[in-house]
Amino acid sequence: MDIQYIKERIALNPFASSFHHFASIDSTNNKAKELAESGFPDCTVVIADSQTSGRGRMKRQWYSPKGEGIYISLILRPSLPSSKYYFFTMLPCISAVEAISECTGLKCGVKWPNDIFIAGKKTGGILTEASLKYDKIDFIICGIGINVNIEHFEGQFLHPPTSLFLETKEKTAIEALIASFINSFYNHYKLLLSKNGEDEVRSIYRTYSLCLGKKVRLIDGEKIIEGKAVDIDEQGYLLVKCQDENILKFSTGDLFILD
Ligand code: BTN
Q1: Stretch among 68-72, 89-93, 152-156 having the lowest mean pLDDT
Q2: Is the minimum distance from the CB of 29 to ligand 1 under 6 angstroms?
Q3: Measured from the CB, is residue 69 less than 6 Å from ligand 1?
Q4: Ligand 1 atom at minimum distance from 114 CA
Q5: Contact 62, 51 (CB under 8 A)
Q6: What band does 29 get if pLDDT is binned at 50, 70 and 90?
Q7: Which of 44, 64, 170, 212 is the most buried (most CB within 10 A)?
Q8: pLDDT digits 0-9 by tens, 152-209
Q9: Are 24 and 52 in contact (CB under 8 A)?
Q10: Looking at residue 223, what is its pLDDT?
C-alpha cells in the first residue's frame, strides 16, 4: 500500500499525525483498542492490508483478503455523553457512502444500522465499539471494512456480498478510497461536534438510508418483527410500524428489506 500517497491526501486533517499501518494484523479494531487503552489520542487511525481475524457485528467474521479491501479503525475521544454513542455508527456509514461515490461514481446506501449496500448486496460494514466511563464516552473505535477489488467471496454471508469491482468491472485505487473516506469522516466528525451538528448528521444518515418507507423484517434475538420502517429517531432507534399500527423501537438487530 502506498502510505505516502494517503498521508499526502489527508495532510490537512489530524488523522495524518497518528497513522498506523500494518501489512497483516488479526483485527484493526483489536489493535486500535490496544492503542486507545495505552493513551493514543483522538483521531488515531489504524490500517491493515489484510486481517487474519477480521470481526463483524454479532461475533461474525469479516472476510479480509490482502490488498482487496479496506480495513480501517479510528480511535475517537469526543467529549460526549454515552447516549450519543449511536452517532459513531452513523458517521462512518455516511462517510463510506460519500467516499465510494466520489471514487467510483456508484450510488450506494446504508441499511440500518451499519451496512453499506449497493444494488441489494452488502459491500461494506461498520463495527463500532466503545469504552464508556459512567455516563461519558472514554473512547470509541469505529471499524470500517469495504469490499473493494474482491472478485470471489469465500465463506458464508448473512446478506449476499458484493465488491466495488463486481459492480463496476473496474479496479478501484485502495489508497484514494482510504484518503477520501478519512477526509469525509473528519468533516462529518467536525460537523457532529458543531452547533446543530447532531440534527445535520441524523438528517444525512436518513437521506442515505435504504429502509425508510420500506417493508422490513427485523430479527432481534428470538424476536422476528415485520412492518414498515418509518423513521430513525433522535436516539438512533429504528421505528417500525407493525400491522396493528403499533410502532416498535429497535436499537439493534438484523434488518432485511422486503420490498
Ligand atoms: C459488519 O458488517 O458486521 C461489520 C464489519 C466490520 C469490519 C471492519 S474491517 C476493519 C475493522 N476491524 C475488524 O476486525 N472489523 C472492522
Answers
A1: 152-156
A2: yes
A3: no
A4: 2
A5: yes
A6: very high
A7: 64
A8: 998 888 899 999 999 999 999 999 999 999 999 999 999 999 999 999 999 999 999 9
A9: yes
A10: 87
Match 491493515 to its residue by C-alpha cell.
48
d(CA 151, CA 130): 33
Which stretches within 10-163 are classed as H helix? 28-37, 87-104
**Residue 31 near ligand 1, beta carbon < 6 Å:** no
Strands annotated E in 81-156: 109-111, 115-118, 121-133, 136-147
What is the structure's pLDDT at 154?
A: 85
Number of the ligand 1 atom closest to the C-alpha atom of 27: 14
Burial class (CB in 10 A: 0-12, 13-18, 19+), 186: buried
Q: Which atom of ligand 1 is nearest to the CA of 145?
A: 9
Own/partner pairs, 195-203, CB within 8 angstroms, 24+ separation: 198/84, 198/87, 201/87, 201/90, 201/91, 201/94, 202/90, 202/232, 202/234, 202/236
Closest residue (by CA) to atom 10 of ligand 1?
A: 71
- Tell me, using a 6 A CB cutoff, whether residue 73 lines ligand 1: yes
104 closest CA partner among 61, 56, 162: 162
pLDDT of residue 58: 86
**CA-based R_g, the chain, Å:** 18
Asked whether the whole model's pTM tops 0.70, one would answer: yes
For residue 159 and ligand 1, the question of a CB distance below 6 A is answered with no
Average pLDDT taken over every residue of the chain: 95
Ligand 1, atom 3, lies closest to the CA of: 56
Cis ω before 113 (30° cut-off from 0): yes
**Residue 32, helix vs strand vs coil:** helix
